[in-house]
Structures are given as C-alpha cells and as structure tokens.
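[job 4417] fold queue: 2 targets
>>> target A
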Amino acid sequence: MPMPQVPFDDRGLAYGDGLFETVLLRDGQPVLWEYHHARLSKGCQRLNIPLPSARQLSQAWQAPPRAALEVLKLILTRGSGGRGYAIPNQVAPRLMTRRTPFTTNETHWREGVCVRMCQLRLGHQPLLAGIKHLNRLENVLARQEWQEPDIAEGLLTDQASNVVEATSMNLFWSSEGRLYTPYIDRCGVEGTLRAALLSEGLIHESRLSAAALSSVERLWVGNSVQGVWPVRELRDAHGSRLAAWPRFKADPLQVAAHRLLGYPGTFLS
C-alpha cells in the first residue's frame, strides 16, 4: 500500500514534530508490542501529542501478512496547523503506516560485525532522551561518516565522551561476567529490545567511556528488528583497529535477546 501524500504544512515534515516506531511483525503479529506502545506513549507525553487509540494502532497490522517476517513503520506527526513553532489550538495528529517484507542477516548473527567510532557527538537534551522522535539529523550525519561495506555500524558518544548507542542500534557489553548497556538519560533512543532485556533483569545500565570501550570482555549491537550482532572488530573514526574479540561458543546476550524476538539463539561456534 503506498504511503499517503504528506501535506506541505505537516509539522512532522516541517519541524520533525512527531514520533515513529519500527516494529517486527511475525506472521502478522507485532513482536515486543508492549514495549513499542510504552515508548510511543512516553513520546506522546513528552511532545504533548495525543496518543492514538489501541484500535487505531492495531489497524496497522490487521491485513493478512505478505511474508513470515515484516517490518511495520508507524509515523505519528502532530498534524497540520499552528503559527510557526506554536502548536495549533486543536491538534489533529496524523498517523501513517507501512509494512514491508523483512529478511534477517544471519551472517551477522553468526560471524559478528565490524563497527567504528563516529566523530559526531550526541548533544545532551534530557527532554528528548529515550523517545524516538522524527528529528534524527544527528544519526543521519553520523551515518555519512563511512561508506566501507565491511563496517556494519557506527558508535556514538555524547558530550562527556561516554558511549551511548550505535546509529540505529543499542549497545551492549560484558564486564566481569555481567551484561551492560549505556544509560539513555541525556540523549539516545531507548530501544524496545533493550527495554525488554532490562525488564527481565538480564542486563544492567551503566556508563562506559569511549576510552574504556576497547577493554570490555565482549561487545554487541542490537535492536528489535535485526536482533543481536556480536562485534568482532572495533575501529576508530579513521579506520584504525582499536580492538578485536574472538568468536565464542556461547553467546548469552544473543540467546536471551533472540528468545524474545523468536529468532534462533546463537550461531557462534
């Protein structure tokens, strides 16, 4: 189904005044929907946009599936109107959705990936931290920093030189046998897979400086669509190797995360 044309005065188009969710559909049913809905609700509260009803949202996946795995993208804007940055007196949110077939990258699951540090640093804005708002210019600029096909992701630090996330995934690491993920209280996106792992007590929040990143026991990037990719090599922003990790027979984070997503548990051997 084609996306509807967005009016010229839509505030999401003009100002990034809105939110989005990217949801894995398995056999037509949303995976981790509880966490997606919670993040969307938090974003609506932060931006003061009315939350669509459960019926409105569920209509996005009522059509028969076209593939066993699909990705559903929900875009919610404040709608049209208002004078400049001032919001209209009567807000009429605009909800748009699109479903596309999806294929997992089992090579990344099995062999791991190479990632690099980005030069761009995320700005601190606690009011926007965690939510998936439409203004992703920092991520767009960061993704322009590399073109090498063997680099799967770029890691982003904040103004205090702490690692926060990857350009489109959350970050995880192990230290002394415990699994961690960065705090998302100043900037960054609270991924739904990350939220589910935290809810089950499988990972813990901590701060990690960019300088300490190369000394962690193991490193991963992951999200609720792609699953978890073990990091086998870390490079700096100029392409020089900072660290490398061997493949392991057991991958506790991948097993736990993929159980939540319905993916195979581990491919490393």
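>>> target B
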Amino acid sequence: MRWIAPFLICCLPFSATAHPHVFIDTGLEFIVDESGQLTHVRVTWAYDEFYSLLVLEDMNLDQDADGVLTETEEQILSGFDAQWVEGYNGDLVVFADGVPVALSGPMEADATAENGRIVTSHIRAVDGGGVPAAALTAKAYDETFYTAYEVTRPVKVSGPESCKIDRIDPDIDAELAQMRAFLLTLDANYDLEENDIPLVGESFATEIIVTCPST
C-alpha cells in the first residue's frame, strides 16, 4: 500500500493534501469469554522503518543502531503511542451485529523492536463488560489517511475455537480510480483551509469479520 502516497502526490493539482505519512502493519486479537461475549481487543502496530527511526532517535534509544532494544529501552518506549487525546478512537472501529462497540482507551501498552521497526501492542476493554461476539466486524483506519493501516499481522480470536474469521480487502484500483477522478476536478486555486479534504481512509481499510456460535 505504500505506493499510494506517491500516486496521490503526483496526481494532485496542488502540493498539499492528505496522504500517508506513517505506515503501520496491524494485527488484531478478539478476546471472547466462555459465554460468547467479546470483552477485549488487543491491537498490534508495527511501524514503518523510517518512522521507527525518527521515534528512536528522538527518544535517544537504540544508540548502537543494531535494531534491538534492551529491556530498559523497551520500558522507556512502551506507551509512547498510548497517550491519546480525548475523543480519539484509536483508529479502530468495531461493530457487533451492526451496532458500534464502545472501547476503552489503551491498557497494558508495551513496545519492542523487530529488525529496526517499532512494534507496539495495547488492550482495549469493551465498555460495559462485553457484547455478543456472534457477528463482529472491525476496521483499522485513519479517516484522514495521514496514517495508512494494513492488516498484515495475525488476526485471531482467543476463546471459542469454533469462531470464524474472514476478511474483505479493499479494491485498491477502483478506489484509486475514483480518487483520481475527483482530484482531477480540482484546480490550483482550491483552498484547503476553506474546503474539507476528502476523508478517504476508510476506503482503503480491510474489513475483518468475526462470527462465533451463540452460546
């Protein structure tokens, strides 16, 4: 997906617009209890090499540049991306039978490095204790597309072994064609401060579908 950014830039009639600056490989773990209730979601983010380098340099970590963090460095890094402003949804939406699931802020945040890439994880609790996991859908995306999420890391269910996971990947070619058609309607005088930039992040998001048997 990282070739989307240069596509957007080269096709725009102006220099500033929303396009990915950070690329994250994402993994999800849906934690379901014995009664068939989704109680938590564990989220894993693996940042791209360039952004990881910037963060590590800014925090004065991995000074030997071997791409491996010490235990102390991991403790310092853990939670750097878990300081969320009020109202931030964590770039994750979950629905249960079509109804939005309210999730807590990040808990149990940790971090490490894999081949020079920062990999973090956190857990989010379902408000109210849980919701039925019979029909869940989830998408990880930043609607502004400043951050591009791609679900390339494991997606799993911890709980009933009979739960099934499916995914619907976006039609990238079709979405890019639609975006390009829109961009070509704009001119160099298009005022980004007075006009909203199209929120295209969801268009490039993979939909995860989890179905668990009713208990």
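[job 4417] complete. Note on B: Residues 2-18 have pLDDT under 50 and may be disordered.
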